[in-house]
């Protein structure tokens, strides 16, 4: 009996102190997320979720825009090389930073918040929680703190040792994209039309720079005329913010009605001709039946939007993650070890 108890104790100890990915070899996050599961840090860093949330609560209280910025960081990371925190790497002798790409330069922000989260985690759980997982958790918690849905984030990503400035320039959809461009960009990442429309709903919070929507105001089709789908009063207001030349960094809310509240107003505004970016409005006006139908459905039913947004965020967060022995756990999110 005593021998049996010793054996059972040894088995339990091996289970508790092994790599979590070995403890749960088939994952615990459900089918479709091999190697990633919400309990990944259950034994190695049980405080991880709490630490991320505590830093974000303070950061977003000080700057409500930060929620949208962190959500966008995760999106721009996952579309380039997969969800591997490559977007966080600074220029170095071996790295051309993705921060310098067209979609990112003078635009993406929130790096200091990620740095603070990483520093806190390194104090409590050294060399344990990846920067890629921090981005995924920060995107979820930013959504929740803005009034949006909660979801269990599958974890276990590792960090890349490389970045791709060229892919950052080519793989992130442009704000003036046509509906077919958008569908193609998302399909390349394994995301469908439902994911496209739901994830676009992240634009219910945040702002965009004048340079990203100027074309709609002054030269939509190369004939020096505005985009006629813009509602007139909204159009006049945007012209006051965004002149024909200059003011590239002037900003306007993506959701003019509730710019810091995560809700379904974004879709209602599109129905009224008040989608800020071309890539927003074409979800309705691009003559693709499925995206038109989804815009109307999400405008009518916020809970439906929240449910699909959560599912699509989990799906996006599973784009080509590095797991197991691939990549590394960076000590500093801005540089490789």
3D structure, described in words:
This protein has a two-stranded antiparallel sheet with strand order 1-2. The chain is globular, with a radius of gyration of 21 Å. By secondary structure, it is mostly helical. It has helices at residues 2-17, 20-23, 48-62, 66-78, 111-124, 131-145, 165-171, 179-188, 193-200, 210-218, 232-241, 265-271, 278-285, 289-300, 302-316; strands spanning 207-209, 251-253. Helix 14 (289-300) crosses helix 15.
Summarize the entry for a quick read.
Residues 1-23 form the signal peptide. The chain has 337 residues and is mainly α.
Task: Describe the structure using short key phrases.
disordered N terminus; 337 residues; 15 helices; two-stranded antiparallel ribbon; globular; mainly alpha; 2 strands; Peroxidase, domain 1
Write the CATH fold name of the largest domain: Peroxidase, domain 2
Termini Cα gap: 48 Å
Which descriptor suits the 3D outline?
A: globular
Q: List SSEs in N-to-C order.
A: HHHHHHHHHEHHEHHHH
* Helix content bin: 40-55%
Low-pLDDT windows of residues: 1-31
**Domains (count):** 2
CATH superfamily of the largest domain: Peroxidase, domain 2
